[in-house]
Amino acid sequence: ACSSKYVLSALHPMWQGPLVAPGGNRQSPIDIRVRKSVFDPHLKPLTPDYDPGTCSQIWNNGYSFLVEYDDTTDKSILKGGPLEDNFRLCQFHFHWGESNAWGSEHTVDRRLFPAELHMVHWNSNKYSRFEEAVMEENGLAVIGVFLKIGKRHEGLQKLVDVLPAVRHKDSVVEFTRFDPACLLPANIDDYWTYAGSLTTPPLTEAVTWIIMKQHIEVSHDQLAVFRSLLFTSAEEEVQKSMVNNFRVQQPLRGRTVRSSFT
Ligand SMILES: COc1cccc(CN2CCc3cc(OS(N)(=O)=O)c(OC)cc3C2)c1
Ligand SMILES: [Zn+2]
Question: Does the CB atom of residue 204 touch ligand 1 within 6 A?
Fold first, then answer.
C-alpha cells in the first residue's frame, strides 16, 4: 500500500504547515474559475478499472482516514482522461469541515462544498512504487469529487459503519471488498484537470488533478460520523475532533485549468 507512518508536522492537528510550499509554483488546492478554464477537445474519457478485491484496510493517519488498496499489481488502475500512462490506485480519503458550510479543498468559482473525496493513484508505467512516484512531476493522479448533503449514500455506509473502529490516530482495521467506483458520480466524462501538488506533506508537485464537475450526495448523519473521528491518539489526554482537515487555497501562478466539456 502507499501508506507509511508519515509523520506530519508538530503543528498538527490544525496542520498549518507552510502556507505556500517554498519555491512552489504548482501548489494545491486552488479555486477553479469556470470561465477561465479552457476546453480541451483532446481530453479523453476517464477509464477507471478497480478490483474491490484489492481493498485492504482503513487507517486514521492523524489527518484523515485512508482506505488503502493493495498496489503491488495493476489490478485497480486509472487510465484515459489527461493521463498518458497507467496509474495504480493506492488509497482514497476525504477532507471535511466542522459544519456543512465548508470543508472542501478545491472550490468552483469560490463555492465551497461540505467535503471532498480524493482517490490517489501513482504512475506504474514509470515508477515501481508510490514513494518513488510521489517525488516526480508526472508521478501521481488524484481524482477529486465534491460531496453535498442530501440523500444517504448506500455505498458509503459500509465505510461509515467501520469508522468508529479507527476513531483515534494510528488505529487500523482490516477493510475488504469495497468498490471505490461506487463513490464516483454518474457522469465522469465532465471534469477539470490541472497540474498541482499533494495538499498534505510532503506537498510534492507531483499531481495531475482531475476534479469531477458532478458531485455525489451523502446524508447529514453520514458526514457527522466523519466528524466523530479524532486527530489525536488514544494516549493523548486532550482529544481533538477531526474536522477542518483541508489546506488553504494556493496561488494559481499562471497555470491553466482545462475542461473536458464546454
Ligand atoms: C514520501 O511521503 C510519503 C511516502 C509514502 C506515503 C506517504 C503517505 N501519504 C501519501 C500522500 C497522501 C496524500 C494525502 O492527501 S492529498 N490531499 O492527496 O495530498 C493524504 O491525505 C490524508 C495522505 C497521504 C498519505 C507519504
Ligand atoms: Zn486529499
Answer: no
Q: Are 240 and 231 in contact (CB under 8 A)?
A: yes
- Interface predicted TM-score (ipTM): 0.94
pLDDT in tens, 202-242: 999 999 999 999 999 999 999 999 999 999 999 999 999 99
Closest C-alpha to ligand 1, atom 15: 200
Burial 58-88 (b: 16+ CB within 10 A, else e): bbbbbbbbbbbbbbeeebbbbbebbbebbbb
Q: Give backbone dihedrals phi and psi of 80, rounded to 5 degrees, phi first.
A: 80, -160
Per the document, the length of the chain is: 262
Atom 10 (ligand 1) nearest CA = 3
Contact status, residue 144 vs residue 209, Cβ threshold 8 Å: yes
Q: Check if 93 has its Cβ closer than 6 Å to any atom of ligand 1.
A: yes
CA–CA gap between residue 198 and residue 49 (Å, rounded): 23
**How far apart, in whole angstroms, are the C-alpha atoms of residue 104 and residue 86?**
27
Does residue 92's CB lie within 6 angstroms of at least one atom of ligand 1?
no
Q: pLDDT tens digits for 12-54?
A: 444 555 555 666 899 999 999 999 999 999 999 999 999 999 9
